[in-house]
Amino acid sequence: MAATYIPIASTTLSSSAASVTFSSIPQTYTDLVLRYSARTTLGAFTGQGYVTFSADTGSNYSSTGLIGNSSTASSLNNSSLQYIRIFYAYNGSDTTSNSFASGELYISNYSSSANKQLSIAAATEHNGAGSGEAYVSSNAGLWRNSSGITSISLSETFGSSFVAGSTFHLYGIKNS
Amino acid sequence: MPATYEPIVTTTLSSAILNLDITSIPGTYTDLKVIMTGVPSANDTLQMRFNSNTSNYSRTRLSGDGSTAASGRNTSQTRFTIADNKTTQPFFVEFDIFNYAGSTHKTMLYSYNLDRNGNGEVVKGVALWRNTAAITELNFFNQLGANFNSGTTVTIYGILKA
């Protein structure tokens, strides 16, 4: 039977870290799924996600987001960036203590020679009463590169750190 | 142990086609997850049917194009309208079809994602097929007749409850 959601690697932070990287990703799966539960040291309610692949620092990334903040729905777009931006990805230090955001990146055909399209879902929530304190975002991301993804690096756009207790899990999915 | 996310079938196009049909889906699972990625031959709108049936479809969706968020609904349609489908970059869409072999009406959630470095489309939708027949077939096509290009892939996973 083909293997689906096979764990490839996991990281649980025992102390704060500026970034998390999964390296040496085998090219033997069809798709990748990365799930996280994360909080950052950013002095705000939410932090923005910063994702790069295979150490590519070129302006080969872009994303489109659909966002809700408990009162308003909106849509944003970034193009030709040096990273994929996850809109409103992580809880910041202004949120209720011990509250972490959840997210999932689904990367289809990550080892193919086509550009890589991914689906990203993120939710930040901390039982806050104000608009703009929590977000739900659904993002489409694009990495314009024909190489397979061999590493994934996550960080926060404004340079904050992930706090201890943040977890990141990478799975492989085979379609046959 | 129940089988979760067990691959049932994968279809990858070796040449462009107008209609992408997946048939003979076994009724032995609880739910289906469908992953589709590809590029249309022209800008168009992705459509979907079950069992080649042409009635009793409706859906509600939330969408964003990079500048505007919107919501819309279709009722009593001849097919599901999934999302605007554009060329150049591969789209990615995920469908979750619940209780697909049961004798009640069929509910589906879908998430469509396309970023084209400057514009894009994100769609989250819920869809309903008012038909009590088991789903044995998925039918994909584009509204205005665009083809699905070579390399378009559809994978169906079966999920079995305990």
Helix content of chain A: under 10%
Strand order of the largest sheet of chain A: 1-12-3-8-9-10-5-6
Low-pLDDT windows of residues of chain A: none
Report the β-strand fraction of chain A as a percent range: over 45%
Largest inter-chain interface? Answer: A-B, 38 and 39 residues
- C-alpha end-to-end distance of chain B: 7 Å
Q: What is the makeup of the main sheet of chain A?
A: 8 strands, antiparallel
Compute the separation of the termini of chain A in Å: 8 Å
Could you list some keywords that capture this structure?
heterodimer; A: 176 residues; mainly beta; eight-stranded antiparallel β-sheet; four-stranded antiparallel β-sheet; 12 strands; 0% helix; globular; B: 162 residues; 54% strand
Summed up:
Chain A is mainly β. Chain A has strands at residues 6-12, 19-22, 31-38, 46-53, 61-68, 73-81, 84-91, 101-107, 116-124, 135-143, 152-156, 167-173. Chain A starts with 5 loop residues before the first strand and ends with a strand.
Write the layout of secondary structure elements.
The complex is a heterodimer of chains A (176) and B (162).
Chain A: E1 6-12, E2 19-22, E3 31-38, E4 46-53, E5 61-68, E6 73-81, E7 84-91, E8 101-107, E9 116-124, E10 135-143, E11 152-156, E12 167-173
Antiparallel strand pairs in A: 1-12, 2-11, 3-8, 3-12, 4-7, 4-11, 5-6, 5-10, 8-9, 9-10
Chain B: E1 6-12, E2 20-22, E3 31-38, E4 44-50, E5 57-64, E6 69-77, E7 80-85, E8 91-98, E9 106-115, E10 120-129, E11 138-142, E12 153-159
Antiparallel strand pairs in B: 1-12, 2-11, 3-8, 3-12, 4-7, 4-11, 5-6, 5-10, 8-9, 9-10
Textual characterization of the structure:
The complex is a heterodimer of chains A (176) and B (162). Helices cover 0% and strands 51% of the residues of chain A. Chain A is built from no helices and twelve strands. By secondary structure, chain B is mainly beta. Chain B has no helices and twelve strands. In chain B, the strands form two sheets. Chain B has an eight-stranded antiparallel sheet, with no helix packed on it. The mean pLDDT of chain B is 95. Chains A and B meet through β5, β6, β9 and β10 of A and β1, β5, β8, β9 and β10 of B.
